[in-house]
Hints:
alpha+beta, Immunoglobulin-like, 2 domains, about 35% strand, about 160 residues
Amino acid sequence: MQFAVRKKRVRVASALFALVLLVSGTALFIYRSYGLQVPIIPDRTYSSWLIEAKLNFASDGRPARITLQAPQRGGAHEILTENFVSAGFSLGAASLDGAREILWSRTPPAGEYRLYYQALVRRVSSDDQPPLMAGITEKTVKFTGERRELVQSLF
Length: 155
């Protein structure tokens, strides 16, 4: 008798846990698709950008400190998700003169290392807001001859 009651409680608790997971997943899905306007249908598009950076470096065993300028928060753009992959490195972020910097640091053994950064960003408004990547300059490269033809064939 006591075993049957305990088994019933476990079933009820499991069903409630599954219901909580289902409701949480559905709420998160609705928030991302309608609140953050992340497209869920292939034909639907929004003004969003995927920013990625991969940093490769070789360490000689001395302390390493690597910084990366990252998109600003707020203004005309909103960061929906931001991911960092940096196995074994300490990770920090700081705002200096309005620009965000990501800092990785560690005293690694000698060898090759890779650090990754990824952000999904979307435009919130078209008001005169600070640019997304303040302090980052855009470099225009002009191609001539065969390289120009190759680049034009890509577009």
